[in-house]
Amino acid sequence: MPDVMAWFDHTRKGSRYEHSSFPPVLDLLKKTGQKSGADAIWEGRQNWKNTAVRADATPRETIALDANAAYLAAFKTHLPIGQLTWNDSQVHDPKRAGIHHITPPAWPHEDLPSPLGDRRKTGDVWITEPTLRLLQRCTQDGLCDPPLIHESWTSGATENVLEKLRRTLAQVRREAIENGDDVTVEYLKSAYSKFISTMGESTYNREIRRPDWMHILRSQAYANLWLKARKAHQAGLVVVEVTGTDELHVHGDWQQVFTEGRDLSDMKPKRTYTLGADR
Questions:
Q1: Whole-angstrom Cα distance, residue 40 to residue 121?
Q2: Per its UniProt entry, which superkingdom is the organism in (predicted)?
């Protein structure tokens, strides 16, 4: 962790926006128990399977695709700069970011997962900025009604807080891949993953405490995967499964939709299997 935090601090030198590393932590962002580690925020994690396709006995070749460096790609997101403040105007300010208490809209699509992910409960929920913006984008595309915002905790925001760090790590990762340096690739994966996971209430990183950032970055990774599923669906592929931050299963010619490779915007095949073959 000291290495990636040193990189982060170096990339923030001369930045236009000065972020807060230790703002007061809202009760909403505090763990409710030591064992569960849960708080009130729903991140929109995906764990979706297309039940209609899986019920079809017709054998169909399925490709499991992997999104590269999902958490690193999520560094491109709107992060609140300072302390979160409360607002109940029910209006979203795109110049601010944070967490929002909403009534989610109905999701009437069986062939595409909900942007809210694998949420079993119904009713109102606290979500982060990426999930709200994704729902609003779905509204613009006519996929669902707009979410009803009840209250928000936000701060002035920018997409550039982690941009220099993202570009630096992406470049080092790209060079390591080109040189066949798997040790560096794995080290970087561990570095940016731990950077996110320890910026909340963690004893492993004493240089920053932003549980709001942690939730937002995770939510952005889930949102990015959903957008890939939506892109595949729009191109005529059948979306079979969407899981976690990086796994997308489809029927169809995926290489007409995504570029195969190991760069951040690329997808790579993990395995091929036949769905319905055992029926």
A1: 13
A2: Bacteria
For tokens 């290489």, the residue is: 255
Whole-number pLDDT of residue 1: 40
What is the domain extent for residue 45?
Answer: 2-275
Question: How many domains does the chain contain in total?
Answer: 1
Contact at 8 Å (CB) between 153 and 86? yes
Nearest to 149 by CA among 199, 86, 95, 67: 86
Q: Is 230 helix (H, G, I), strand (E, B) or coil?
A: helix
The least confident of 119-133, 201-215, 222-236, 238-252 is 201-215
pLDDT per residue over 74-121, tens digit each? 999 999 999 999 999 999 999 999 999 999 999 999 999 999 999 989
* Spatial distance between the Cα atoms of 126 and 131, rounded to a whole number of angstroms: 10
- CA 276 to each of CA 60, 66, 236, 239, 279: distance values in angstroms, whole numbers, following the listed order: 7, 22, 20, 15, 6
Q: Between helices 129-140 and 211-234, what is the axis angle to 10°?
A: 30
Residues 6+ apart with CB under 8 A from 231: 257, 258
Q: Is residue 171 left, alpha or beta, with left meaning phi > 0 and alpha meaning psi from -120 to 50?
A: alpha
10-69 pLDDT tens trace: 887 767 777 888 899 999 998 876 555 678 999 999 999 999 999 988 899 999 999 999
Predicted TM-score (pTM) above 0.90: yes
